[in-house]
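quick one: 2-acetamido-2-deoxy-beta-D-glucopyranose bound model?
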Amino acid sequence: MPRELASLNVGTITIRHLLPSSTMDDGPLHVVVFPWLAFGHMLPFLELSKSLAKRGHRISFLSTPRNIQRLPKIPSQIASRVNLVSLPLPKVDGLPEDAEATTDLPPPKVQYLKKANDGLDEPFTRFLQEASPKPDWIIHDFSHHWIPPIASMFEVPCAFFSIFPSSTLVFIGPPSEMKLGGQRRTPEQFTKPPEWISFPSSAAFRLHEAQVFTEHYQNNASGFSDFRRLELIIQGCKLVAVRSCKEFESDWLALLEELYKNKPVVVPVGLLPPHVQESIEDVHTDTTGAVAQVFGWLNGQTPGSVVYVALGSEATLSVELVHELALGLELSKVPFVWALRKPAGMASDVEILPKGFEVRTRGLGVVAMGWIPQLRVLAHPSVGGFFTHCGWSSTIEGLQFGHPLILLPIFTDQGLIARIMEDKKIGLEVPRNEENGSFGREGVAKAIRLIMVEEGGEPFRCKAGKLKEVFSDKESQECYVDNFVRCLQNHRAKQG
Ligand SMILES: *[C@@H]1O[C@H](CO)[C@@H](O)[C@H](O)[C@H]1NC(C)=O
Ligand SMILES: CC(=O)N[C@H]1CO[C@H](CO)[C@@H](O)[C@@H]1O
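yep, here:
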Protein backbone atom coordinates (compact mmCIF):
# COMPACT_ATOMS: atom_id res chain seq x y z
CA MET A 1 0.00 0.00 0.00
CA PRO A 2 2.14 2.82 -1.27
CA ARG A 3 1.79 6.37 -0.05
CA GLU A 4 -0.60 5.60 2.73
CA LEU A 5 -0.55 6.57 6.31
CA ALA A 6 0.27 3.96 8.85
CA SER A 7 0.66 4.21 12.56
CA LEU A 8 3.90 3.14 14.03
CA ASN A 9 4.39 2.71 17.72
CA VAL A 10 7.60 4.34 18.84
CA GLY A 11 8.25 4.49 22.54
CA THR A 12 5.32 5.83 24.48
CA ILE A 13 3.41 7.62 21.77
CA THR A 14 2.16 6.80 18.35
CA ILE A 15 3.74 8.81 15.62
CA ARG A 16 2.31 8.82 12.13
CA HIS A 17 4.71 7.70 9.55
CA LEU A 18 4.47 7.84 5.82
CA LEU A 19 5.27 4.47 4.29
CA PRO A 20 7.92 4.48 1.58
CA SER A 21 6.49 4.08 -1.86
CA SER A 22 8.01 1.85 -4.53
CA THR A 23 7.92 4.70 -7.02
CA MET A 24 9.61 7.11 -4.64
CA ASP A 25 12.21 9.34 -6.17
CA ASP A 26 15.06 9.85 -3.74
CA GLY A 27 16.72 12.73 -5.59
CA PRO A 28 17.20 16.07 -3.86
CA LEU A 29 14.07 18.05 -3.15
CA HIS A 30 13.46 21.66 -4.10
CA VAL A 31 11.73 23.21 -1.10
CA VAL A 32 10.32 26.73 -1.04
CA VAL A 33 10.44 28.27 2.45
CA PHE A 34 8.38 31.35 3.24
CA PRO A 35 8.22 32.71 6.81
CA TRP A 36 6.18 35.59 8.23
CA LEU A 37 8.00 38.94 8.10
CA ALA A 38 9.35 38.78 11.65
CA PHE A 39 12.86 37.77 12.66
CA GLY A 40 11.43 35.54 15.38
CA HIS A 41 9.93 33.54 12.50
CA MET A 42 12.57 33.98 9.79
CA LEU A 43 15.40 32.67 11.99
CA PRO A 44 13.79 29.30 12.89
CA PHE A 45 12.70 28.93 9.24
CA LEU A 46 16.32 29.54 8.31
CA GLU A 47 17.47 26.88 10.82
CA LEU A 48 15.09 24.40 9.21
CA SER A 49 16.31 25.45 5.75
CA LYS A 50 19.93 24.90 6.76
CA SER A 51 19.06 21.47 8.15
CA LEU A 52 17.47 20.49 4.84
CA ALA A 53 20.32 21.98 2.78
CA LYS A 54 22.86 20.00 4.82
CA ARG A 55 21.06 16.89 3.61
CA GLY A 56 21.60 17.94 0.00
CA HIS A 57 18.20 19.50 -0.70
CA ARG A 58 17.71 22.79 -2.50
CA ILE A 59 16.03 25.65 -0.72
CA SER A 60 14.42 28.80 -2.08
CA PHE A 61 14.05 31.05 0.96
CA LEU A 62 11.53 33.83 0.28
CA SER A 63 11.27 37.20 1.98
CA THR A 64 11.52 40.88 1.12
CA PRO A 65 14.72 42.74 0.12
CA ARG A 66 15.59 44.38 3.47
CA ASN A 67 14.86 41.20 5.37
CA ILE A 68 17.03 39.11 3.09
CA GLN A 69 19.87 41.63 3.59
CA ARG A 70 19.54 41.37 7.38
CA LEU A 71 19.63 37.57 7.61
CA PRO A 72 22.67 35.95 9.21
CA LYS A 73 25.23 34.53 6.83
CA ILE A 74 24.58 31.01 5.52
CA PRO A 75 27.54 28.67 6.27
CA SER A 76 29.69 28.43 3.15
CA GLN A 77 29.41 24.61 2.79
CA ILE A 78 25.68 24.87 2.08
CA ALA A 79 25.34 28.43 0.76
CA SER A 80 25.12 27.23 -2.85
CA ARG A 81 21.99 25.21 -2.03
CA VAL A 82 20.16 28.03 -0.26
CA ASN A 83 18.78 30.52 -2.74
CA LEU A 84 17.64 33.73 -1.04
CA VAL A 85 14.78 35.22 -3.03
CA SER A 86 13.62 38.84 -2.55
CA LEU A 87 10.00 39.56 -3.36
CA PRO A 88 9.14 43.29 -3.48
CA LEU A 89 6.84 44.35 -0.64
CA PRO A 90 3.91 46.41 -1.92
CA LYS A 91 3.37 49.87 -0.43
CA VAL A 92 0.42 50.15 1.92
CA ASP A 93 -1.08 53.22 3.58
CA GLY A 94 -0.04 53.35 7.22
CA LEU A 95 3.11 51.29 6.74
CA PRO A 96 6.26 53.42 7.19
CA GLU A 97 8.80 53.52 4.38
CA ASP A 98 11.43 50.76 4.73
CA ALA A 99 9.45 48.80 7.33
CA GLU A 100 9.61 45.18 6.20
CA ALA A 101 9.68 43.27 9.49
CA THR A 102 7.76 43.52 12.75
CA THR A 103 10.92 44.70 14.48
CA ASP A 104 10.75 47.91 12.37
CA LEU A 105 7.32 48.76 13.79
CA PRO A 106 5.52 49.52 17.03
CA PRO A 107 2.91 46.77 17.66
CA PRO A 108 -0.19 48.78 16.57
CA LYS A 109 1.30 49.15 13.08
CA VAL A 110 1.94 45.45 12.50
CA GLN A 111 -1.52 45.11 10.95
CA TYR A 112 -0.31 47.19 7.98
CA LEU A 113 2.61 44.84 7.50
CA LYS A 114 0.10 41.96 7.37
CA LYS A 115 -1.80 43.83 4.71
CA ALA A 116 1.37 44.45 2.69
CA ASN A 117 2.33 40.80 3.19
CA ASP A 118 -0.94 39.75 1.55
CA GLY A 119 0.13 41.70 -1.52
CA LEU A 120 3.06 39.29 -1.91
CA ASP A 121 0.65 36.76 -3.43
CA GLU A 122 1.32 38.06 -6.94
CA PRO A 123 5.13 38.02 -6.87
CA PHE A 124 4.85 34.62 -5.16
CA THR A 125 2.70 33.28 -8.01
CA ARG A 126 5.22 34.58 -10.55
CA PHE A 127 8.02 32.95 -8.58
CA LEU A 128 6.22 29.58 -8.68
CA GLN A 129 5.54 29.94 -12.40
CA GLU A 130 9.20 30.50 -13.16
CA ALA A 131 10.82 28.29 -10.53
CA SER A 132 13.07 25.65 -11.98
CA PRO A 133 13.18 22.83 -11.09
CA LYS A 134 9.54 22.88 -10.12
CA PRO A 135 9.31 23.00 -6.30
CA ASP A 136 8.44 19.74 -4.52
CA TRP A 137 7.11 21.40 -1.39
CA ILE A 138 6.28 24.79 0.08
CA ILE A 139 6.94 25.26 3.79
CA HIS A 140 5.22 28.38 5.01
CA ASP A 141 3.99 30.28 8.04
CA PHE A 142 0.60 30.96 9.67
CA SER A 143 0.31 34.34 7.95
CA HIS A 144 0.26 33.25 4.30
CA HIS A 145 -3.32 32.02 4.02
CA TRP A 146 -3.20 32.52 0.25
CA ILE A 147 -0.37 30.06 -0.30
CA PRO A 148 -2.36 26.78 -0.24
CA PRO A 149 -4.81 27.81 -3.01
CA ILE A 150 -2.00 29.17 -5.22
CA ALA A 151 0.16 26.10 -4.55
CA SER A 152 -2.67 23.78 -5.50
CA MET A 153 -2.95 25.46 -8.92
CA PHE A 154 0.62 24.35 -9.47
CA GLU A 155 0.03 20.99 -7.74
CA VAL A 156 2.71 21.64 -5.14
CA PRO A 157 1.92 20.37 -1.60
CA CYS A 158 2.20 22.70 1.40
CA ALA A 159 3.47 22.23 4.93
CA PHE A 160 2.84 24.68 7.75
CA PHE A 161 5.93 25.04 9.93
CA SER A 162 4.89 25.99 13.45
CA ILE A 163 7.62 27.86 15.27
CA PHE A 164 5.29 27.52 18.26
CA PRO A 165 5.32 24.38 20.40
CA SER A 166 2.46 21.89 20.03
CA SER A 167 1.06 23.01 23.40
CA THR A 168 0.29 26.41 21.85
CA LEU A 169 -1.50 24.85 18.87
CA VAL A 170 -3.45 22.58 21.24
CA PHE A 171 -4.50 25.57 23.34
CA ILE A 172 -5.72 27.38 20.21
CA GLY A 173 -7.64 24.21 19.35
CA PRO A 174 -9.09 22.70 16.16
CA PRO A 175 -9.99 24.99 13.20
CA SER A 176 -13.59 25.34 14.45
CA GLU A 177 -12.19 27.17 17.51
CA MET A 178 -10.00 29.61 15.58
CA LYS A 179 -12.60 32.33 15.86
CA LEU A 180 -14.20 34.01 18.84
CA GLY A 181 -17.50 32.46 17.73
CA GLY A 182 -16.14 29.11 18.95
CA GLN A 183 -16.59 27.95 22.52
CA ARG A 184 -14.57 30.87 23.92
CA ARG A 185 -15.71 34.43 23.44
CA THR A 186 -14.33 36.54 26.26
CA PRO A 187 -10.80 37.02 27.62
CA GLU A 188 -11.98 35.40 30.89
CA GLN A 189 -12.59 32.15 29.03
CA PHE A 190 -8.92 32.03 28.10
CA THR A 191 -7.85 32.08 31.74
CA LYS A 192 -8.51 28.36 32.18
CA PRO A 193 -7.30 25.40 30.13
CA PRO A 194 -9.76 24.53 27.32
CA GLU A 195 -11.85 21.38 27.87
CA TRP A 196 -10.04 19.44 25.14
CA ILE A 197 -6.86 19.33 27.21
CA SER A 198 -7.32 15.88 28.68
CA PHE A 199 -4.50 15.88 31.25
CA PRO A 200 -3.66 18.14 34.20
CA SER A 201 -2.02 21.35 33.02
CA SER A 202 -1.84 25.02 33.96
CA ALA A 203 -1.80 26.03 30.28
CA ALA A 204 -3.99 29.12 30.38
CA PHE A 205 -3.55 32.87 30.32
CA ARG A 206 -3.66 35.41 33.10
CA LEU A 207 -6.37 37.97 32.50
CA HIS A 208 -3.98 40.71 31.35
CA GLU A 209 -2.39 38.28 28.87
CA ALA A 210 -5.77 36.99 27.65
CA GLN A 211 -6.84 40.54 26.81
CA VAL A 212 -3.85 40.84 24.48
CA PHE A 213 -4.14 37.28 23.17
CA THR A 214 -7.75 37.69 22.06
CA GLU A 215 -6.58 40.43 19.66
CA HIS A 216 -5.35 37.57 17.49
CA TYR A 217 -9.02 36.74 16.84
CA GLN A 218 -9.84 40.25 15.70
CA ASN A 219 -9.85 41.57 12.19
CA ASN A 220 -7.27 44.15 11.44
CA ALA A 221 -6.32 46.49 8.60
CA SER A 222 -5.63 43.38 6.50
CA GLY A 223 -9.20 42.12 6.94
CA PHE A 224 -7.98 38.79 8.34
CA SER A 225 -7.49 37.96 11.99
CA ASP A 226 -4.35 35.99 12.80
CA PHE A 227 -6.37 32.92 13.71
CA ARG A 228 -8.55 33.17 10.60
CA ARG A 229 -5.24 32.95 8.75
CA LEU A 230 -4.25 29.94 10.82
CA GLU A 231 -7.63 28.29 10.21
CA LEU A 232 -7.22 28.60 6.42
CA ILE A 233 -3.65 27.32 6.67
CA ILE A 234 -4.60 24.26 8.73
CA GLN A 235 -7.40 23.48 6.30
CA GLY A 236 -5.20 23.98 3.24
CA CYS A 237 -1.93 22.27 4.09
CA LYS A 238 -0.92 18.63 4.04
CA LEU A 239 1.55 18.59 6.93
CA VAL A 240 2.00 20.53 10.14
CA ALA A 241 5.67 20.49 11.03
CA VAL A 242 6.05 21.45 14.67
CA ARG A 243 9.27 22.63 16.29
CA SER A 244 9.01 20.04 19.01
CA CYS A 245 10.01 16.54 20.04
CA LYS A 246 8.29 13.72 21.89
CA GLU A 247 10.95 13.66 24.62
CA PHE A 248 9.62 17.05 25.75
CA GLU A 249 6.04 17.22 24.47
CA SER A 250 4.76 13.67 23.84
CA ASP A 251 1.39 14.33 25.51
CA TRP A 252 0.84 17.60 23.62
CA LEU A 253 1.90 16.14 20.28
CA ALA A 254 -0.46 13.18 20.68
CA LEU A 255 -3.29 15.53 21.62
CA LEU A 256 -2.62 17.77 18.62
CA GLU A 257 -2.85 14.75 16.31
CA GLU A 258 -6.18 13.92 17.86
CA LEU A 259 -7.48 17.48 17.49
CA TYR A 260 -6.49 17.71 13.82
CA LYS A 261 -7.65 14.12 13.11
CA ASN A 262 -4.77 13.66 10.68
CA LYS A 263 -5.98 16.51 8.51
CA PRO A 264 -3.31 17.72 8.29
CA VAL A 265 -0.75 15.18 9.52
CA VAL A 266 1.34 16.39 12.47
CA VAL A 267 5.10 15.79 12.26
CA PRO A 268 7.55 16.95 14.93
CA VAL A 269 10.69 18.32 13.21
CA GLY A 270 12.71 18.33 16.42
CA LEU A 271 13.78 21.36 18.41
CA LEU A 272 16.29 22.55 15.79
CA PRO A 273 18.76 23.71 18.45
CA PRO A 274 20.99 26.30 16.76
CA HIS A 275 24.73 25.64 16.53
CA VAL A 276 27.02 27.93 18.52
CA GLN A 277 29.75 27.35 15.96
CA GLU A 278 27.61 28.79 13.19
CA SER A 279 26.50 31.74 15.28
CA ILE A 280 30.15 32.70 15.69
CA GLU A 281 30.42 33.04 11.92
CA ASP A 282 27.40 35.24 12.07
CA VAL A 283 29.29 38.31 13.24
CA HIS A 284 27.55 41.61 13.23
CA THR A 285 30.23 44.26 13.31
CA ASP A 286 30.96 45.13 16.89
CA THR A 287 31.37 48.81 16.05
CA THR A 288 31.09 50.12 19.60
CA GLY A 289 33.09 47.33 21.21
CA ALA A 290 30.06 46.52 23.38
CA VAL A 291 30.13 42.80 22.53
CA ALA A 292 33.83 42.50 23.34
CA GLN A 293 33.15 44.29 26.62
CA VAL A 294 30.40 41.81 27.57
CA PHE A 295 32.63 38.80 26.95
CA GLY A 296 35.60 40.42 28.66
CA TRP A 297 33.45 40.95 31.73
CA LEU A 298 31.92 37.44 31.58
CA ASN A 299 35.38 35.89 31.45
CA GLY A 300 36.13 37.36 34.87
CA GLN A 301 33.03 35.92 36.62
CA THR A 302 32.56 32.76 38.69
CA PRO A 303 31.18 29.78 36.71
CA GLY A 304 27.38 29.56 36.79
CA SER A 305 26.99 32.81 38.74
CA VAL A 306 25.60 35.18 36.10
CA VAL A 307 21.97 35.62 35.08
CA TYR A 308 21.46 36.52 31.43
CA VAL A 309 18.48 38.85 30.96
CA ALA A 310 16.90 39.21 27.52
CA LEU A 311 13.31 39.82 26.54
CA GLY A 312 13.58 39.09 22.83
CA SER A 313 13.74 41.45 19.91
CA GLU A 314 10.08 42.44 19.91
CA ALA A 315 8.71 42.07 23.39
CA THR A 316 8.00 45.49 24.80
CA LEU A 317 7.51 46.57 28.39
CA SER A 318 6.51 50.04 29.49
CA VAL A 319 9.36 52.24 30.70
CA GLU A 320 8.00 51.95 34.27
CA LEU A 321 8.27 48.17 34.13
CA VAL A 322 11.75 48.27 32.59
CA HIS A 323 12.73 50.40 35.58
CA GLU A 324 11.22 47.89 38.04
CA LEU A 325 13.14 45.12 36.28
CA ALA A 326 16.37 47.15 36.58
CA LEU A 327 15.80 47.89 40.25
CA GLY A 328 14.96 44.22 40.87
CA LEU A 329 18.24 43.16 39.29
CA GLU A 330 20.09 45.64 41.47
CA LEU A 331 18.25 44.43 44.57
CA SER A 332 19.02 40.77 43.84
CA LYS A 333 22.79 41.39 43.96
CA VAL A 334 23.14 38.59 41.40
CA PRO A 335 25.70 39.32 38.64
CA PHE A 336 23.95 39.98 35.32
CA VAL A 337 24.28 40.56 31.60
CA TRP A 338 21.25 42.41 30.28
CA ALA A 339 20.56 42.67 26.56
CA LEU A 340 18.33 45.73 26.35
CA ARG A 341 16.85 47.31 23.29
CA LYS A 342 14.88 50.49 23.08
CA PRO A 343 11.64 49.40 21.41
CA ALA A 344 10.72 50.75 17.96
CA GLY A 345 8.64 53.88 18.33
CA MET A 346 9.87 54.92 21.79
CA ALA A 347 10.75 58.63 21.99
CA SER A 348 14.49 59.23 21.92
CA ASP A 349 14.50 61.39 25.07
CA VAL A 350 13.01 58.65 27.29
CA GLU A 351 15.50 57.31 29.83
CA ILE A 352 15.20 53.56 29.51
CA LEU A 353 17.23 52.91 32.68
CA PRO A 354 16.49 54.37 36.11
CA LYS A 355 18.61 57.31 37.24
CA GLY A 356 22.04 56.28 38.47
CA PHE A 357 21.48 52.59 37.73
CA GLU A 358 24.63 52.06 35.67
CA VAL A 359 26.83 53.76 38.24
CA ARG A 360 25.34 51.81 41.15
CA THR A 361 25.62 48.45 39.37
CA ARG A 362 29.11 48.95 37.95
CA GLY A 363 30.95 45.71 38.66
CA LEU A 364 27.73 43.82 39.42
CA GLY A 365 26.62 43.59 35.81
CA VAL A 366 26.67 44.91 32.26
CA VAL A 367 23.88 46.30 30.12
CA ALA A 368 24.38 45.70 26.41
CA MET A 369 22.34 48.11 24.32
CA GLY A 370 21.82 46.81 20.79
CA TRP A 371 22.71 43.45 19.33
CA ILE A 372 24.56 40.78 21.26
CA PRO A 373 25.11 37.14 20.27
CA GLN A 374 22.60 35.49 22.61
CA LEU A 375 23.67 31.93 21.92
CA ARG A 376 27.29 32.66 22.75
CA VAL A 377 26.31 34.40 25.96
CA LEU A 378 24.12 31.44 26.98
CA ALA A 379 26.99 29.09 26.14
CA HIS A 380 29.45 31.00 28.34
CA PRO A 381 30.48 29.02 31.45
CA SER A 382 29.89 32.02 33.75
CA VAL A 383 26.18 32.07 32.89
CA GLY A 384 23.96 30.00 35.19
CA GLY A 385 20.41 31.17 34.56
CA PHE A 386 18.23 32.85 31.96
CA PHE A 387 15.70 35.61 32.62
CA THR A 388 13.47 35.27 29.55
CA HIS A 389 10.24 36.40 27.91
CA CYS A 390 9.61 32.70 27.12
CA GLY A 391 9.53 32.94 23.35
CA TRP A 392 9.88 29.33 22.22
CA SER A 393 13.17 29.96 20.36
CA SER A 394 14.77 31.61 23.38
CA THR A 395 13.44 28.91 25.69
CA ILE A 396 15.03 26.25 23.48
CA GLU A 397 18.31 28.16 23.45
CA GLY A 398 18.35 28.46 27.24
CA LEU A 399 17.54 24.80 27.87
CA GLN A 400 20.11 23.72 25.30
CA PHE A 401 22.65 24.84 27.91
CA GLY A 402 20.65 23.54 30.87
CA HIS A 403 19.86 26.97 32.31
CA PRO A 404 16.97 27.26 34.78
CA LEU A 405 14.59 30.04 33.79
CA ILE A 406 13.17 33.16 35.40
CA LEU A 407 9.99 33.77 33.44
CA LEU A 408 8.52 37.08 32.36
CA PRO A 409 6.15 36.32 29.47
CA ILE A 410 5.01 39.31 27.43
CA PHE A 411 2.78 38.45 24.50
CA THR A 412 1.46 35.83 22.02
CA ASP A 413 1.88 32.36 23.51
CA GLN A 414 4.61 33.28 25.98
CA GLY A 415 2.26 33.09 28.98
CA LEU A 416 1.34 29.52 28.06
CA ILE A 417 4.98 28.52 27.70
CA ALA A 418 5.76 30.10 31.08
CA ARG A 419 2.95 28.09 32.78
CA ILE A 420 4.22 24.87 31.21
CA MET A 421 7.81 25.58 32.26
CA GLU A 422 6.62 26.20 35.78
CA ASP A 423 4.51 22.98 35.70
CA LYS A 424 7.69 21.14 34.73
CA LYS A 425 9.71 22.89 37.45
CA ILE A 426 12.21 24.30 34.97
CA GLY A 427 11.48 27.92 35.73
CA LEU A 428 9.78 30.34 38.05
CA GLU A 429 7.55 33.24 37.07
CA VAL A 430 7.99 36.79 38.28
CA PRO A 431 4.76 37.47 40.21
CA ARG A 432 2.49 39.93 38.41
CA ASN A 433 -0.75 41.72 38.93
CA GLU A 434 -3.47 39.54 37.37
CA GLU A 435 -5.45 42.44 35.87
CA ASN A 436 -2.84 44.82 34.52
CA GLY A 437 0.33 42.71 34.44
CA SER A 438 2.41 45.10 36.52
CA PHE A 439 5.20 43.75 38.71
CA GLY A 440 7.56 45.09 41.32
CA ARG A 441 11.28 45.05 41.95
CA GLU A 442 10.94 42.84 45.06
CA GLY A 443 9.22 40.08 43.04
CA VAL A 444 11.93 40.31 40.38
CA ALA A 445 14.73 40.09 42.95
CA LYS A 446 13.12 37.17 44.81
CA ALA A 447 12.60 35.08 41.67
CA ILE A 448 16.17 35.74 40.49
CA ARG A 449 17.68 34.88 43.89
CA LEU A 450 15.69 31.67 44.21
CA ILE A 451 16.64 30.37 40.77
CA MET A 452 20.26 31.53 40.90
CA VAL A 453 21.51 31.14 44.46
CA GLU A 454 19.07 29.94 47.10
CA GLU A 455 18.75 26.36 48.25
CA GLY A 456 15.04 26.38 47.37
CA GLY A 457 16.04 26.76 43.70
CA GLU A 458 17.98 23.49 43.59
CA PRO A 459 15.09 21.43 42.09
CA PHE A 460 14.81 23.96 39.23
CA ARG A 461 18.54 23.99 38.56
CA CYS A 462 18.60 20.21 38.67
CA LYS A 463 15.59 19.74 36.35
CA ALA A 464 16.86 22.28 33.81
CA GLY A 465 20.31 20.67 33.92
CA LYS A 466 18.77 17.28 33.11
CA LEU A 467 16.81 18.72 30.18
CA LYS A 468 20.07 19.78 28.58
CA GLU A 469 20.44 16.12 27.58
CA VAL A 470 17.26 16.38 25.49
CA PHE A 471 17.68 19.90 24.14
CA SER A 472 21.32 19.57 23.14
CA ASP A 473 21.13 15.98 21.87
CA LYS A 474 21.98 16.76 18.25
CA GLU A 475 21.72 13.12 17.19
CA SER A 476 18.16 12.47 18.30
CA GLN A 477 17.03 15.93 17.19
CA GLU A 478 18.52 15.26 13.74
CA CYS A 479 16.46 12.04 13.52
CA TYR A 480 13.31 14.15 13.61
CA VAL A 481 14.53 16.13 10.61
CA ASP A 482 15.35 12.86 8.80
CA ASN A 483 11.84 11.62 9.45
CA PHE A 484 10.39 14.92 8.22
CA VAL A 485 12.45 14.67 5.02
CA ARG A 486 11.08 11.14 4.46
CA CYS A 487 7.56 12.56 4.72
CA LEU A 488 8.43 15.26 2.18
CA GLN A 489 9.99 12.72 -0.19
CA ASN A 490 7.04 10.36 -0.03
CA HIS A 491 4.64 13.10 -1.00
CA ARG A 492 6.70 15.24 -3.32
CA ALA A 493 5.02 17.01 -6.22
CA LYS A 494 4.87 15.21 -9.56
CA GLN A 495 7.40 16.74 -11.92
CA GLY A 496 6.62 17.85 -15.45
C1 LIG B 1 -1.90 47.76 38.48
O1 LIG B 1 -2.74 47.51 39.56
C2 LIG B 1 -2.11 47.70 40.84
C3 LIG B 1 -3.08 47.23 41.93
O2 LIG B 1 -4.38 47.65 41.70
C4 LIG B 1 -1.73 49.18 40.97
O3 LIG B 1 -1.08 49.40 42.21
C5 LIG B 1 -0.79 49.55 39.83
O4 LIG B 1 -0.50 50.92 39.86
C6 LIG B 1 -1.43 49.22 38.49
N1 LIG B 1 -0.41 49.42 37.45
C7 LIG B 1 -0.69 49.94 36.26
C8 LIG B 1 0.45 50.04 35.31
O5 LIG B 1 -1.79 50.30 35.94
C1 LIG C 1 -3.36 41.04 16.48
C2 LIG C 1 -3.19 42.47 16.07
O1 LIG C 1 -2.31 42.79 15.32
N1 LIG C 1 -4.09 43.31 16.58
C3 LIG C 1 -4.03 44.72 16.34
C4 LIG C 1 -5.19 45.20 15.46
O2 LIG C 1 -5.12 46.61 15.36
C5 LIG C 1 -5.17 47.33 16.57
C6 LIG C 1 -5.06 48.80 16.26
O3 LIG C 1 -6.06 49.18 15.37
C7 LIG C 1 -4.03 46.93 17.49
O4 LIG C 1 -4.18 47.55 18.75
C8 LIG C 1 -4.03 45.42 17.67
O5 LIG C 1 -2.87 45.07 18.39
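The chain is about 40% helix and 15% strand.
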